[in-house]
Hints:
- The protein has helices at 34-49, 54-61, 133-143, 156-174, 179-182, 232-246, 261-266, and strands at residues 14-18, 64-74, 83-93, 97-106, 109-121, 149-154, 191-197, 202-212, 215-223, 251-257, 270-278, 281-289.
- By secondary structure, it is of the alpha+beta class.
- The chain folds into two domains: 8-143, Roll (Thiol Ester Dehydrase, Chain A); 149-289, 3-Layer(aba) Sandwich (Aminopeptidase), CATH 3.40.630.30.
- The strands form two sheets. It has a seven-stranded mixed β-sheet, sandwiched between helices. A five-stranded antiparallel β-sheet has the order 1-3-4-5-2.
- The longest helix is centred in the middle third of the chain and has 19 residues, at 156-174.
- The radius of gyration is 22 Å and the shape is globular.
Amino acid sequence: xxxxxxxxxxxxxxxxxxxxxxxxxxxxxxxxxxxxxxxxxxxxxxxxxxxxxxxxxxxxxxxxxxxxxxxxxxxxxxxxxxxxxxxxxxxxxxxxxxxxxxxxxxxxxxxxxxxxxxxxxxxxxxxxxxxxxxxxxxxxxxxxxxxxxxxxxxxxxxxxxxxxxxxxxxxxxxxxxxxxxxxxxxxxxxxxxxxxxxxxxxxxxxxxxxxxxxxxxxxxxxxxxxxxxxxxxxxxxxxxxxxxxxxxxxxxxxxxxxxxxxxxxxxxxxxxxxxxxxxxxxxxxxxxxxx
Length: 291
């Protein structure tokens, strides 16, 4: 394990969880093996913080990660209903290995320290291969506090292929919206926003239209499923709002899926009118003034 006692200050990434009844043993403390599950869950959230949809990213890179070593050092016990913060960081990258350090904290108290070592390998043969430079740069960049996504604004001619990829995944495949309803003539005149991760993969998109005098309309907001909740939707929306304000619009409206209504409320939008269905999905019109 580490040569010094780790603290919360050693981590810039944390995953939060609450101890469930099923995780407590006869001693009324968390059963020791569950801490490995906690660290594994935190790793999944860590990839989300890197804007990497894990399965698609590994396929893009042509390899996968396999656990070589997992170790735990126990300092104190977690109990039922404790609110825990699981710190996780990439500590070292070798030629084909990646070492992660983790800590389970209750408040500022370190309960369990963990070490996970993965080997990057060929999925077909499970033989090791060098960690790709793009993945190496993404991991070291995150730990250095660098941005994990780049949002580009542009016309369909420049960004259409990337936007189509995200929208097909979200609207056509996941939500089963018919193709003829997803694609329309507005794409040709809209300003599109696409978020790319450090591997160059498009992971979120949206578009901005002129709805009327001084009124903008935002639509086709989509974030790849496994990265939702990581702030990508907010970032895409903010970039489109800024573009609308810069061109002189005074307000913006959108048709929000009812399941996303709370998301837009948090960003200053207010519902107006009655709910309605669009492509068979419940929607509500929402508006927001621009500064």
